[in-house]
Write a structure and sequence with these properties.
Blueprint: E1 14-18, E2 27-30, H1 36-46, E3 58-61, H2 64-69, E4 78-79, E5 85-89, E6 94-97, H3 110-113, H4 124-130, E7 138-143, H5 149-156, H6 158-164, H7 171-195, E8 201-205, H8 218-224, H9 226-238, E9 242-246, H10 255-260, E10 265-266, H11 274-281, E11 286-288, H12 301-315, E12 322-323, H13 334-350
Parallel strand pairs: 3-7, 7-8, 8-9, 9-10, 10-11, 11-12
Antiparallel strand pairs: 1-2, 4-5, 5-6
Length: 351
């Protein structure tokens, strides 16, 4: 149960540092009244954290076992558990399935050609022992590629996969594929929770848009994806874990599908109006809100602190929490972060 712990000035003392995200600068750990992990638990399960959280408090598990078998590999490439070859694109700093040679050309071929890997044969114990969870912050497993559109793209390439979603001759085959892939996803989740029982949450990838718009309509999203999202997030919740979404693109018009699909949090890219998303939907899903833009290098410390207070006043409301996610990290200067921490701590105490 959430407890009111009075703020003390000693909380600003730096006691350690969290590793940076993707090799970036580390994040200082203050003399918090509770751990960053407990703060995230209060966020997700009580919707009233002790202070406004940032993405650095929410660590990700990236074991090579998953990345090479079901993810995208790395600079050396990989052949995944489905037999798909992933090649690294240096300019994008990421991998794609080797283009031009799709595994299937028609979704109706999926049922005969896709063989699901035997998860029991993988060295889960070895992977878990080589990558223990840092208990200082909340940890979630990031299921890159997910189990729906991104996974379909890996088998068909992008354009054929997008067309298949609206092709009446292929839609039933895709629904069957998503059903089977969701069942497989549940087994993957269970394996991670068995071997990393300290996991607090599961992060699912499924990119739905590009810079200007979504890849498919709201109607297609509800027909083709929503039932399977609900099944997987429902299973994750039944295990006592939270479930977050990674979905790139200008897809703010799809947020109600994410809510209905059972996701607890979404970190939208900056082409989405995250502040309006919070205003309209923040009581239903935790939105990572991007602060108002400002020139970090040429803004005084006093003004940065005022901006932090203004941000807290707008985006810290009773039972309507928010985060500052990866796409808002640019704003987290020492002055902004310090003021945001203390001001949000005191504001939560007032509710």
């Amino acid at each position: 149960m959430y407890k009111k712990i009075p703020f003390e000035a000693a909380e600003h003392n730096i006691v350690s540092e969290l590793p940076g995200f993707f090799g970036g600068p580390g994040t200082p750990i203050r003399n918090y009244p509770v751990s960053a992990r407990e703060n995230l638990a209060a966020l997700f399960f009580e919707r009233e954290p002790y202070w406004l959280p940032t993405f650095s408090e929410q660590g990700m598990l990236f074991p090579a076992l998953y990345n090479n078998q079901l993810g995208r590999g790395g600079p050396d490439g990989t052949v995944d558990a489905f037999g798909l070859e992933w090649v690294y694109v240096e300019s994008a700093m990421g991998s794609i399935v080797r283009p031009g040679t799709p595994f299937v050309e028609d979704a109706n071929e999926l049922k005969d050609k896709v063989s699901y890997p035997d998860l029991d044969s993988w060295d889960w114990a070895g992977a878990a022992s080589s990558m223990p969870i840092d208990m200082a912050r909340s940890c979630q497993m990031s299921l890159t590629n997910g189990f729906w559109f991104e996974r379909l793209i890996s088998f068909m390439d992008f354009a054929p996969a997008a067309i298949a979603l609206v092709d009446e001759d292929q839609k039933d085959a895709i629904k069957k594929f998503f059903e089977e892939m969701t069942d497989f996803g549940i087994k993957v989740v269970d394996k991670f929770l068995e071997y990393w029982p300290a996991l607090d949450g599961i992060n699912i990838h499924d990119d739905w848009g590009a810079q200007k718009n979504a890849f498919f309509s709201n109607e297609i999203a509800r027909e083709m994806f929503l039932p399977y999202m609900k099944e997987l997030t429902g299973h994750i919740h039944s295990k006592g874990r939270y479930c977050t979404l990674h979905s790139c693109g200008n897809i703010e018009d799809r947020v109600q599908v994410f809510i209905d699909g059972g996701f607890d949090q979404w970190d939208p890219q900056t082409m989405n109006n995250t502040q309006k998303l919070y205003e309209d939907f923040g009581d239903q899903i935790i939105i990572s809100v991007v602060p108002d833009m400002y020139d970090v290098e040429n803004t005084s410390e006093d003004e940065q602190r005022q901006r932090a207070r203004d941000h807290v006043d707008r985006f810290v409301q009773p039972k309507k929490p928010s985060m500052i996610g990866f796409y808002g990290a640019w704003a987290l200067t020492p002055a902004f972060s310090s003021e945001m921490y203390e001001y949000s701590r005191k504001k939560y105490l007032s509710f």
